[in-house]
Amino acid sequence: MNNHLHTALRLAASNVPVLPLRAGKVPFGNCPACTKNACGGRPNMKHAGPCACLRPCHAWAAATMNPDVLTSQAWTFAWVQASAIAYHPGGAGLTVVDLDDADAVAWARESLPPTRTVPTTRGEHWIYLGPMRSANAVRPGVDIKSLMQYARWLGSGTGTMTPLPDAIRALVEKEETTPARGEVVSSSTGRAPWDASVATGCRHTEKYVRTGLIRGLAMVRARSESGAASQAFGVAQFLAKQHAQCPGPCGLDTLGQEVIAAAVSVGVPEPYAARAVANGLGADVGRAA
């Protein structure tokens, strides 16, 4: 039994759903039967499905407290390759406020009630009792991880967990609720579209990049009621990862401006949209910017 599995079993015994992470701190990919959610998804996902896969497919939704599953042959390959452990905060009745840098930590210390804290590579996790909706980029350097998201296990931390404050719920409501059409705070018109002329160091064809961008913009524009800012974050993160191995430049700033424009078009205030996209591009930009 390796150290990761040993820790996972200890957490599971404490009613914390866990899953292995592969290199890059990301979940293991879906098996062929579960690719693109073809199986319908795990029963505990937002849209319950018939998935009966024995492997750790569907990221956070595969997190489990069942020791028989954790030690099963179907999960062995994952534990052998695992580089870290994640847990599902919402499944444990918790919310993790992920503070990604010193400025975010300083804000939390001034604005939030103290609770259990866990040091991270660049900041801290603040853990509160009570689940809620997850959201990324609710403030500069601040993500909320609870329902439908995972957090990396970095130790037990210090301090006593306290109840989830209304201030955290209010942050998500502010960020996730898209104003009605016609109430756009500012527009992103006049920005040049992406083309190969701004991506002289990109390994991909223009058709490949434009196809991914068009699909991403459609996903953002589809969130006309709520969640457009978080969707913009996800699209930006996906676009950045596409170019992680390029020598660069790949014109990611220009791609990001198109994502911002799409979010603004459905009512997201431009500062929120710009922050979400910047965080999405984040560290994944590397040399490809």
* Strand percentage: 5-15%
The assembly state of the depicted protein chains is: single chain
Low-confidence stretches are 180-191, 283-289
* Secondary structure category: alpha+beta
- Helix proportion range: 25-40%
Please give the structural blueprint:
Blueprint: H1 3-13, E1 18-22, E2 26-27, H2 67-70, H3 73-81, E3 84-87, E4 94-99, H4 102-111, E5 116-119, E6 124-129, E7 135-139, E8 142-145, E9 151-152, E10 162-163, H5 166-176, H6 206-221, H7 228-242, H8 252-265, H9 270-281
Description:
There is one protein chain. Strand 1 and strand 2 form a beta hairpin. The longest helix has 16 residues. The protein is globular. Helix content is 35%, strand content 14%. It is α+β, with helices and mostly antiparallel strands and 289 residues long. It is built from nine helices and ten strands. Strands 4, 5, 6, 7, 8 and 10 form a six-stranded mixed sheet that branches. The chain has a four-stranded antiparallel sheet with strand order 2-1-3-9. The chain starts with a helix and ends in an 8-residue tail after the last helix.
